[in-house]
Amino acid sequence: MNPIQQGIDALILDPTALICMAIGLGLGLLVGLFPGITISMAVALATGFTMTLEPAQGLAMLLSIYVAAQYGDRIPSILVNTPGTPAAVATTLDGYPMAKKGQGGLALSISAIATTVGILMSMVVFMTLAQPIASLALKFGPFEMFALVCFGLTIIISIASRSVAKGLLGGLIGLGLAAVGLDPITADERFTFGSQEMTGGFDFIALIIGLFGITEVLDQILTYHASKVRPISSLGRWWPNKSEFKRIAKPMALSGLLGIGIGIVPAAGGDIAGLIGWNRAKAISKHPEEFGKGSIEGLVGSDTASSSTLGGALTTTLSLGIPGDSVMAIMIGSMVIWGIQPGPSLFERHPDLVVTIATIMIAATIVSTIVSLVRTKAMTKLLDLKPQFIWGIILVFCIVGVYATTNNVMTVVQMLLFGLLGLAFRRVGVPAGPVVLGFILGPLAESNLRRALLIDDVTGFLTRPIAIVLLVLAVASLVWPMIRDARNKRRTMAVDGLVE
Amino acid sequence: MTSTSDAVDPAGEAEVVDSGKAAHVDTGATPSKRMELTFAVLALTLGLAMLLSARAIRVRNETGGMDPRSWPTMIALGILLSAGWTLFNAVTGRRAERDVDGATRSGWIQLGVVIAMIVLVLVLWQVGLSFLILAPVFIIVCNLAFGLRGVVPLLVFPAVLTALLYLVFQLLLKVPL
Fold this sequence. Notes:
The complex is a heterodimer. The mean pLDDT of chain A is 85. Chain A starts with a helix and ends with a helix. The longest helix of chain A has 35 residues. Chain A is globular, with a radius of gyration of 23 Å. Chain A is built from 22 helices and three strands. Chain A is mainly α. At the A-B interface, helix 6, helix 9, strand 2, helix 10 and strand 3 of A face strand 1, helix 1, helix 2, helix 3 and helix 4 of B. Strand 3 of chain A pairs parallel with strand 1 of chain B.
């Protein structure tokens, strides 16, 4: 049997995988719907349950949450003016004004269509680009791989954090956490302080659920300001007419392509793409004055761009082993636990799994579209649920989910400590993304650097053009935000001077 | 996550506001120089402790070149540099803007109760008490702390959640709770 048939069969002929997908879709829609629950948090939480499953079954659940949440998060953006997840921030710009004009139904439908087109466009790119990129990356030696890991880490630091210094600290702390345990080459103990339990290092599931799940809930408890925001209930017509379809075609195509490009950049996610897509759609529109006041082009621009990052992120993750976004970072961790190493060799060792992943993404997109288009008003009623109930559910499931992976209460203690650390980090502005990425990429970076330095000395980097380019890009991604901030500051001071 | 709220109400009886207006209410945390300084000093301490610990790693076979101490040493030096940079920013008064919402007084109390309850649950669980007994108690105490009152939050919700835990974990996944 060829890998394509094998990959598709792994999903459609396995009832457990289909059930996992259905659960993932339901969870994803709910996750998106409730502001405060991020996709990373939901996927992290779900990893506690998927560890005991087969890879295809586990991936069916995790990827379905990832896809379905792209649909669910548009609902509160449009009806309550509150993005369900950060990726739907730009949806509020025109989605909510449309709902206020009595076009809530139309906005929800157009948003679902734009999201579908975005994801499917990006999946075409994934299917055509991922393998050639992986083949190219297969030629990478340890020097190039180390440089690639550095680039992946520095770019997430520059994107995820307002302060480069704090982002860098986060990434380095992640690398430090990964160094605890046994040395990957000599098996000497590092930072175990004589504890037998620490020789295995920190638990990955405890780390991600702590940093994404517990931290999020604790921060919400700490900062909750009660207000009951009334969702818009008069939704009007649902289906766009012919002229509206014609009007959205151009911004949809442009923002889709933009989103794919942004998605390929490690760590650049739907939130950034949505805003850029909205801006570009405005630039090419014949009616830019309508943007921000309920323009369907604006809505399409933001939603197509933000959803089309998915395929790009998947391409970077699977072909290079560098996470395209925080959800993909968790996915890499899960795959490693299953004994699968994402990266160039994945396409040689597990081609069927790559096909399964593409099949899950496309099937989840189609089902989510149908659910989104035939949704009833009842779904929006869920927006009335008090967040305190959700906090309780998440806390209990975090505790039990982490316990289920090892049957050891000490793993839950680790999770709580990571949750508290994450809360402290969040309050001082250290992002969780670089910490997790550092934790995942640390062993890869160290083993490649050590192998590289066995072959040659440090000057070996200078004789390898790809490694040089990647290292220069890594440095540039750290330096560029500082230059940009300094420029903006100077410009602001100049404007202030003129005003005075 | 964008916050769209404007009224503090631990009891949950929130003011109903128009969502369009609410989106512009600022609940952001204010920058704090003291916090920045404390964080930078803690990070410096961490870097120093890691550097000393890294140099103290016992290597069974000294082979020269890059050994098990080298990578942790590089990380520790990186932490020291970044922490120094953060300290410089804090001292020179470059106060970082904060992307988080401001903490509320009731929030601190609720947070304290939740953390204390999690610790208590973990201790009792480790001692041997079943999580299926601890979970409803945990939810009830948390809901009381969150200001929720009535039959649904204090009776129905904990019961349904415990039943779900029993069904999913104990029966389906065979996890001994």
